[in-house]
């Protein structure tokens, strides 16, 4: 039975999942899991890219030690970040983390050269301060010698794939997240590149998810003592892979990819680049098989991750199940934040920021761990309702429920509160959405699945889905009205 390998690198952790197609459907096995810890150097925040490569090699070694011959592999990761190669093909510096402060104020500077409206008309991409376009503009403004020397830009999965295969390709789903790629012409946008003063020669031809893009390099093969493995470009943006794995039988459907970020949206056949989408800052990210994700980023469980880290730094142990149990016992609807307030974006102690937000909005700040976690989770659930309603208006669809995938679905309380807040069922699963979507695209490329419909139907039969029915409707309806006024949402 052929085993294939998916590398899924999230902003918090990475994993390598082995997948097999059997008569019982898809069977997966986690070969290796590792933390993805950014490193602060002076005032700069970097990814430890070579450590990630090292961990990826450990997965290939684990397969070898188990006597498993891997038939193909694919890589997906978080979006927008990149590495620069010099003329000899060597990596120039460590890639910056998208939460590095160098992009502060850069959106406004770029808008002076090209208005928001024009950028959106060329890309269909939402305005996030960390998009690749603003990172490059920040490097340009700083006179970065790296940018001056650079001959090629590769997004994180493109770069890791290059380290393994020596081949340089930019993959479509991730290319769209740069806000430099025009989905209508299917080309890098020369005008945008010119306006930010970056050479178009940094960018290569774009390959679609499902393209065979080489083999492991002889040097990798001999270092690890394994046979060569074909490499497939999957939907290399992790959200693209996650949405590929949504086990929806219906179409259209609404999804929430729930991890470090909460990415909520619906799948569309062509980008929605109208006034409403621009006004509400929606995005159209490239997906599998010619689809796009009409979607909005919500700050997500990042706020909880950072809060947990803060307590751990102070010497308190706080596993997720314990935090969730404390939140469940804390008083309901006591204090809320708008998770998307810009103050929650940068790494750092969140509790002070939550307290500031509460004071500024006339609320008593949460006290103790249970109240703080309750505040974060309720606020996320209420924000999901707001975004889901916006997506319904924008797409003209009414959704019967919400599909949730990603590590966040291990938080049953969040799933239940999400159902309560939206007043519709939540269908939760699979938790390893991105890795499974990554495998699915490899199976399509290998001819094992006809298309994404067949892939989703096999995923549906292979992984359990937990259903959360909405409860306490009146209380949540009332809470939503108050949340809406408090956060000033329009
Ligand atoms: P990403 O790939 O974006 O880094 P994941 O999909 O791995 O994120 O999801 C990570 C999130 O899952 C964490 O922020 C945490 O809130 C949640 N999570 C992880 N483990 C558990 C658990 N045991 N119980 C509840 N929630 C969990
Ligand atoms: C989720 C994600 C998201 C991007 C962000 C940078 O991991 O890829 O889709 O907006 O990271």
Task: Write up this protein.
Belongs to the FGGY kinase family. This protein has 490 residues and is of the alpha+beta class. It has 2 domains: 3-233, ATPase, nucleotide binding domain (Nucleotidyltransferase, domain 5, 2-Layer Sandwich); 246-429 and 465-490, 2-Layer Sandwich (Nucleotidyltransferase, domain 5), CATH 3.30.420.40. 41% of the residues lie in helices and 20% in strands. The protein has helices at residues 49-65, 106-113, 116-123, 132-141, 145-149, 156-165, 172-176, 190-196, 218-224, 238-244, 275-279, 302-313, 320-329, 350-360, 368-395, 412-422, 433-445, 452-462, 473-487, and strands spanning 3-9, 13-22, 25-35, 39-41, 44-46, 70-77, 82-85, 152-155, 170-171, 181-182, 187-188, 206-207, 211-215, 230-233, 254-258, 262-268, 283-286, 292-298, 402-405, 426-428, 466-468. The strands form 7 sheets. The chain has a 7-stranded mixed sheet with strand order 17-18-16-15-19-20-21, sandwiched between helices. The protein has a 4-stranded mixed sheet with strand order 3-2-1-6. The longest helix is centred in the C-terminal third of the chain and has 28 residues, at 368-395. The model has no long low-confidence stretch (mean pLDDT 97). Residues 10-13, 259-260, 301, 304-305, 320-321, 406-408, 410-411 line the site of adenosine-5'-diphosphate (ADP).
Summarize the structure.
The chain is α+β, with helices and mostly antiparallel strands and 490 residues long. Helices cover 41% and strands 20% of the residues. It contains 19 helices and 21 strands.
């Amino acid at each position: 039975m052929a085993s294939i390998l998916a590398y899924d690198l999230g902003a918090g952790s990475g994993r390598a999942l082995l997948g097999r197609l059997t008569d019982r459907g898809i069977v997966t096995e986690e070969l290796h899991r590792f933390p993805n810890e950014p490193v602060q150097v002076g005032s700069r925040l970097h990814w430890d890219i070579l450590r990630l490569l090292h961990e990826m090699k450990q997965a290939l070694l684990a397969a070898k030690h188990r006597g498993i011959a891997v038939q193909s592999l694919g890589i997906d990761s978080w979006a927008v970040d990149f590495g620069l190669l010099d003329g000899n093909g060597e990596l120039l510096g460590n890639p910056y983390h998208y939460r590095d402060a160098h992009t502060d104020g850069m959106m406004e500077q770029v808008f002076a050269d090209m208005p928001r409206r024009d950028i959106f008309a060329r890309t269909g991409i939402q305005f996030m301060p960390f998009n690749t376009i603003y990172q490059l503009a920040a490097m340009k403004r700083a006179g970065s010698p790296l940018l001056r020397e650079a001959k090629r830009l590769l997004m994180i999965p493109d770069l890791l794939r290059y380290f393994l295969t020596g081949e340089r390709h930019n993959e479509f789903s991730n290319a769209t997240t740069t806000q430099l790629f025009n989905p209508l012409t299917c080309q890098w946008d020369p005008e945008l590149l010119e306006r930010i003063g970056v050479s178009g020669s940094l960018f290569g031809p774009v390959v679609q998810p499902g393209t065979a893009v080489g083999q492991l390099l002889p040097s990798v093969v001999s270092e690890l003592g394994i046979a060569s493995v074909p490499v497939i470009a999957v939907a290399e943006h992790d959200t693209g892979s996650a949405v590929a794995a949504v086990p929806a039988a219906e179409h259209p459907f609404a999804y929430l990819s729930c991890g470090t970020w909460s990415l909520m949206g619906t799948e569309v056949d062509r980008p929605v680049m109208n006034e409403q989408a621009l006004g509400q800052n929606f995005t159209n990210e490239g997906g599998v098989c010619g689809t796009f994700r009409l979607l909005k980023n919500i700050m997500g469980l990042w706020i909880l991750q950072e809060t947990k880290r803060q307590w751990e730094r102070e010497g308190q142990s706080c596993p997720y199940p314990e935090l969730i149990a404390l939140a469940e016992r804390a008083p309901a609807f006591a204090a809320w934040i708008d998770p998307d307030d810009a103050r929650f974006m940068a790494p750092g102690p969140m509790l002070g920021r939550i307290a500031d937000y509460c004071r500024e909005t006339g609320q008593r700040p949460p006290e103790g761990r249970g109240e703080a976690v309750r505040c974060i989770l309720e606020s996320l659930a209420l924000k999901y309702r707001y975004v889901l309603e916006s997506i319904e208006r924008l797409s003209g669809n009414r959704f019967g429920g919400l599909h949730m995938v990603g590590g966040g679905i291990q938080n049953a309380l969040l799933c239940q509160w999400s159902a309560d807040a939206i007043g519709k069922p939540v269908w939760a699963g699979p938790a390893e959405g991105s890795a499974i979507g990554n495998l699915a695209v490899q199976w399509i490329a290998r001819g094992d699945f006809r298309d994404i419909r067949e892939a989703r139907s096999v995923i549906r039969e292979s992984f359990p889905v937990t259903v959360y029915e909405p409860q306490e409707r009146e209380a949540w309806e009332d809470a939503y009205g108050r949340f809406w006024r408090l956060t000033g949402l329009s």
